[in-house]
Amino acid sequence: MTETSANSAPGWVPEGALRYLAHTEEGRSIRDLARGAGCHASTILRQIRRIEMRRDDPLVDAALQSLAQTHFPPITLPKQRAVEAEATPDTATFDREALRVLRRMCESGAVLAVAEDMEKAVVVRDDRAGGSTRTAVVERSIAQALALKDWIGCDKPARISRYHITSAGRTALGRLMAEAENRARTQKENGFAEAQSTFGHARGCDTAQDEDDTRRRRFRYNLAESPLVALARRKDRDGQPFLDDGLVRAGERLREDFELAQMGPHVAQNWDRFLTGGGRSTFHVSGPVVSGRPDARDRVTRALAELGPGLSDVALRCCCYLEGLELAEKRMGWSARSGKIVLRIALQRLKRHYDEQAESDRLIG
After folding, report:
1. Is 13 exposed, middle or buried (0-12, 13-18, 19+ CB in 10 A)?
2. R_g of the chain, CA atoms, integer Å
3. Taking the model in full, what pTM does it have?
4. pLDDT band at 157, cuts 50/70/90?
5. For the residues of 311-347, what is the DSSP string, one character each?
């Protein structure tokens, strides 16, 4: 396309949306757009009609309004624009946040909930007791972009709309995960410090670099859930869940703070001091600093310090880095099937830490 306004839009914006806005906001004719794109006018017409039909989705409608106000010159008076534009995320921010959110939405029973009176959206997952657990907080601009890309969809928009991941979203997640892994591998091959990648292959397996040789091996990890959720489905000798919902929520809270602090493949703080055993080099990172939320980093630091050596190690590996128990046991030199016991003890102490923090905050208030 030759539109100057379209060129100023972020790269993640779909081509069909740009043509729709050029037609509705700039008043360009369908034939003019077709000549610029080098295609038949019927192709442009179908794209425009498809976008128009999707405006019943509140997130799609808000995304189009935001893009129109930010990147396309208005053809109406300013007072006719009733909705304030959301800040349009750049491509790097969108890719990073899309990877984080889509991974959460791949978990069993997970949906993204958006309410009219909420500043942000949340990803929630149904638990066994019929309740729900919040697993991620999402900026509305990111949620709007995901809906515009058709990576998430809502069957029945309402005052509280619930979005699920689409087949296009799952395909995009696989691509984003592969790109993240390639970036980490490129850094290593170029001589940078070894970066931990928490993202596996799109087919549902993670990969790890063995410390003794350069052969890459695969260990089991289901993309649709975290190792913590998989362990929660196991039963103890009395037939009760091995991890109750409170322990799962404690681990998910630690992971949420970890992700809010943007501790992905490029880590803004070195967490090696919390790791014990022989697997330190796997997590040694000295890459570029990524600006995360300092309050989230402080919460993660306090939680890991409360757990102490050993317990903080297994919590960081299994809850934050999504490392399987078998691999964690091998790297820390533990006997087989002992990791789940230590992890449960760590989660129990972590839950107590969060309960004490909540009680302290209540007394202060």
Report:
1. buried
2. 23
3. 0.59
4. confident
5. HHHHHIIIIIS---HHHHHHHHTPPTT-HHHHHHHHH
